[in-house]
Design a protein that fits this description.
By secondary structure, this protein is an alpha/beta fold. Helix content is 30%, strand content 21%.
């Protein structure tokens, strides 16, 4: 190889473009393998993820290894100047392993051993499984650790929180509880087991199947997440030992899989994730752009560094119920959206469509037709060419003055809570609702954890529906506001501690003084019942908004009332308050508002807080502008997620259109699903 320099960490000099390449599926088709590398060059691909589900191919019998095909693949990638991201195969065990060692298969809640099949159905606690994973990982590390084009370890694939109830796992759960609570008395108090006579008198009485003990079920979720992380740490220990200079990742998913990714992030060298939006569905299609941006920013925020979009689809999936092929311009827009929010890669599942298996109709760069003339292939080539011209952005970062808290353990606790309204609590939806208003103003946001993420560098922190206040979080909020920060709290905040025990003395618990209010009770708004609020933004501007779902009744202490309910027995009582506390301010939004409220609220707030907007003011709905920058320049990604074209005025005369390398004069035109990248030299 001559064109690939050894990366330090993952700091390559170019953006990466590639796919999952299941080479082993095509060993009987040498003409297809030859064609693949020709097409990879055409698509400007410089990286391939390999070996991810190849255990049965590498070790067809216990202790018998076949590396010939993988040797050949490494050679061919290297000859074509393509990096390899090498997977460890633990995500899908071979049949011989399940047959010889049944303990590696999971046990369900009723005590039945699951049969071999699917993927990620192994017991993560099983000593035999961990031993076999360590053996094959060591073999891979010793054989390929010094290959010039080995860029990164891709450990397993899409870990999930699937539970196993075997004796190993239940015993480990009880050990985990002993460490957490020290004594049964502490555990009984934390779980409030005096309710319904649930008191435990022996650790061996505890089994994670009683949904009436929310503390138990919350701790079971925590344990499974910790157990999965422990398995990951066990798996990478061999790789760290054998290849200390090769960085490690594992591909995250949406935060709906009951894993605490904030904890995982501490043990990977670079964050990667698999992004599968559902484009072209629904009346507000641009909202899919908002949601996708939110999750890109979340993955960037795990380490406050560029991440990898390890998987995306070049067109449609086959597992989402309805997945519509991307319309013209959408593939380029959705790919560069990831770059705009901090990714340094665009990668696909998969390179070539499989002939069989569950995902044989999942789109790929090369489909079953097998040539390079399809619209999908041409879209991928367009992305590859664009990424080649964006290499200068590799070291650019995103600097945000605003953070939105997305607390995964809070989400678990809230999902378990039996509230007067337990349907559609909408935690994730509400976090994205606040984000949407800021996205539409062109304001970049970090998505952070309440406990582990620092607040120091933000002017504004938004904490929607923080039902559970973990130990130490209230103190962080108080310090943030004391030091001049602005904090947004909402309904369903500060109801319980981290054992899911209700705070006494009124909600929001330890934040009552900070918010300057106490919640007396919470009304439930359910159709056909209605509620509205009225807000006076200034002397000449009073507006009314619809509100939904929940409505806190507030007892105002030191806060100033900024908005009031207008209907029923809550009419003329506080719905929005502002409390000045030391050098900062805490807002309390006591109900869920319609979208237009958040637009008006944040538009006013960013002006008051002098939070800098991007280069375009008054962005139309569905259009955003996101920035990445370094010491040498700023890059602005202006993106239109609407079906219609838009025209935008540009006031900054120093901006260069990177496509034409010329200054932008007055305005730019964005077609349907269009994107424009502008640069400003420092």
């Amino acid at each position: 190889m001559t064109n690939i320099s050894k990366p330090i960490g993952l700091k390559t000099s170019v953006l990466l473009h590639g796919a999952d390449y299941n080479y082993e599926q095509w060993l009987d088709y040498p003409e297809i393998l030859d064609t693949d590398f020709k097409y990879m060059k055409e698509a400007r691909c410089n990286v391939m993820s390999i070996g991810i589900f190849s255990w049965a191919e590498i070790e067809p019998q216990e202790g018998v290894f076949n590396f010939d095909w993988l040797d050949d693949l490494f050679d061919r990638l290297e000859a074509n100047n393509i990096y390899a991201i090498l997977g460890t195969p633990s995500g899908s065990k071979p049949a011989w392993l399940s047959k010889k060692y049944p303990e590696v298969c999971r046990v369900d809640e009723k005590g039945k051993r699951e049969p071999h099949g699917q993927r990620h159905n192994h017991c993560r606690t099983s000593p035999i499984y961990r031993e076999k994973v360590a053996i094959i990982n060591r073999k891979l590390a010793q054989r390929y650790g010094k290959r010039k084009n080995l860029l990164l370890w891709h450990v397993s694939n899409e870990y999930n929180a699937g539970a196993c109830y075997c004796d190993y796992c239940i015993d480990d759960f009880r050990k985990w509880l002993r460490v957490r609570y020290k004594t049964l008395d502490n555990l009984n108090k934390a779980w409030w087991t005096s309710f319904w006579s649930h008191r435990f008198t022996d650790w061996n009485q505890i089994f994670p199947s009683d949904n009436s003990i929310s503390g138990l079920m919350l701790d079971w979720k925590r344990f499974i997440s910790d157990q999965t992380l422990d398995f990951f740490k066990s798996e990478i220990s061999v790789l760290r030992e054998e290849t200390p200079n090769i960085p490690i990742t594992t591909n995250f998913m949406l935060p709906n899989v009951d894993l605490n990714y904030w904890n995982f992030a501490k043990y990977v060298d670079v964050i990667s994730w698999d992004s599968y939006p559902r484009w072209h569905i629904g009346d507000r299609e641009w909202m899919e752009g908002v949601k996708t941006a939110f999750f890109h920013d979340m993955h960037r925020s795990y380490k406050k560094a560029p991440f990898m979009m390890m998987e995306s689809t070049p067109s449609a999936t086959n597992w989402q119920g309805i997945s519509i092929p991307k319309k013209p311009n959408m593939h380029l827009l959705s790919s560069l959206q990831a770059i705009a929010h901090g990714s340094n890669t665009v990668q696909y599942f998969q390179w070539r469509q499989s002939r069989g298996g569950e995902e044989k109709f999942h789109s790929a760069v090369v489909n079953h037709l097998g040539d390079d003339k399809t619209p999908v292939f041409k879209d991928v080539v367009e992305v590859g060419k664009k990424l080649e011209n964006l290499s200068q952005i590799v070291n650019c970062r995103t600097n945000s003055q605003v953070a939105i808290i997305y607390d995964l353990e809070n989400e678990w606790a809230l999902s378990l809570a039996q509230l007067p309204r337990s349907q559609k609590k909408c935690y994730q939806d509400r976090c994205i609702a606040h984000y949407r208003a800021l996205w539409n103003l062109g304001i970049s946001c970090d998505i952070i954890d309440s406990l582990d993420s620092p607040f120091d560098n933000y002017k504004l922190v938004v904490a929607p529906m923080l039902y559970m206040l973990r130990d130490g979080v209230a103190e962080k909020f108080i310090k943030f506001v004391e030091n001049g920060g602005t904090l947004i709290l909402t309904y369903l905040t500060g109801l319980v501690n981290d054992s899911d025990l209700c705070f006494l003395g009124g909600f929001p618990g330890k934040l009552k003084e900070l918010a300057g209010i106490v919640v007396e009770d919470t009304d439930v708004i359910s159709n056909p019942l209605k509620q509205k609020i009225k807000v006076k933004w200034n002397a000449d501007d009073e507006r009314e908004y619809d509100v939904f779902h929940y409505a806190d009744r507030l007892r105002v202490k030191t806060a100033e009332i900024k908005g009031k309910y207008t209907l029923s027995n809550m009419a003329n009582t506080a719905a929005i308050t502002e409390n000045k506390f030391k050098n900062g301010v805490t807002w309390y939004l006591a109900t869920r508002m319609e979208d237009s409220f958040y637009d008006d609220f944040y538009k006013k707030l960013i002006v008051d807080l002098n939070i800098k907007q991007n280069i375009i003011s008054n962005l139309p709905q569905g259009v955003t502008c996101q920035k990445r920058s370094d010491e040498e320049g700023e890059f602005y990604f202006i993106m239109n997620f609407n079906k219609e074209s838009v025209s935008l005025n540009i006031e900054d005369k120093e901006l260069i259109d990177i496509d034409t390398d010329s200054k932008v004069i007055n305005s730019i035109q964005l077609p349907s699903y269009g994107i424009k990248i502008l640069k400003k030299a420092m």
